[in-house]
Every structure is written in C-alpha cells, then in structure tokens.
Amino acid sequence: xxxxRRRRQHIRxxxxxxxxxxxxxxxxxxVAGLRPELQIVGSFALSAAFxxxxxxxxxxxxxxxxxxxxxxxxxxxxxxxxxxxxxxxxSNSLKGRYIGRRPTLETCKKISESKIGNxxxxxxxxxxxxxxKISMSSKGHKRGLGIRMSDSFRRKTRDRMLKFWSDPIxxxxxxxxxxxGKRMKKMKREGVAYAK
Length: 196
Fold this sequence. Notes:
Blueprint (H helix, E strand, L loop, with lengths): L2 H14 L4 H11 L14 H17 L21 H11 L10 H11 L12 H11 L12 H16 L1 H11 L7 H10 L1
Helix pairs in contact: 1-2
C-alpha cells in the first residue's frame, strides 16, 4: 500500500470521528494544529516487512514509547490485549443472540408472524399498466430475450456439446464438480463411465 495514501486515510477517518485509539491520537494532533508525519524506515518484501514491523514495534515498546499499535505488528492480531472492561462489553452485546442454540418455539412463532404479508413484491398483484411496462421493456434483443437461433447454429452447438461431454476427462471433471470437488472412488468412476 502507498504509505502517503495510508496516512491520508488515517487522517480522514480521524476527522470523520472514528473512535479507534490511533484516530483519537491523530485527532489530538489536529486539534493542537499539528499533523502526523510519516517516516519510511526501509523497503522489504512482504513476508520480511511483517517481521520487520514486529521487530520495530517490540523495540519502541521496550524503550517505553506509547504506540497506537493494538498488536505486536505483523499479520493478524497476535499480541492484542483486550481489557476486562472491553471483554465485558463484548459479552453483554452477544447475550440474547442465538449463537449456537435454537430459538424457543415462541420466538420462532414471532419470527414467522413478522414475515407474513406483502413485505416485498412476493404475492403482490401488479396493475395492468405496470405489467404492460414490464412486458414492453423485456421485448427485443436485450440479453438474448426473444432471439431465435437458426437451426444450423443450434445443430452446431448441440454437436459441440456432445463432443465435449463424450470425452471421459471432461465427464469426470463435471462429476467431480457436482460431487463438491471431491474425486470419485475408482470403482464408482468406472461404474459411471460404464453406465454412460
């Protein structure tokens, strides 16, 4: 990512009122009439860059710097420390949801009743004028609607598809795709090929 673009994004999010710690720190600088500066410490390959970031974060934390990094740097949230207060807030926000348990019959009935009726176009009776407008907009050569293919074109397409699917390799690929990408056992494959 372009470092100057990243800096602009952080400043913009701080101005828009983001509540992240680093954006609050930038907001404090902006209020004081200052702007955060960016210093490039080196150019690295992506895998080495994560290790170098982690090394620099460790170094400055050891020196007692009050960094805005929530983690130790690198990939992921390794080293992210969540306070007990934050843990309690997350716990409270998740309580009452149906994560990993079935809703009660009463709740299921309430959900069912809330979905009854014309919430969208399902079951809605359209006026004759609206139906005519839809019909007119669908006529013509839009997205292949109303196009009649010639007999020779249809014959060529049919022959091409028959040739393609008569090839055992293409047939096995299709069967594997229908099987969720899993390869069929040898006997099953032979049985399918024999039945074909």
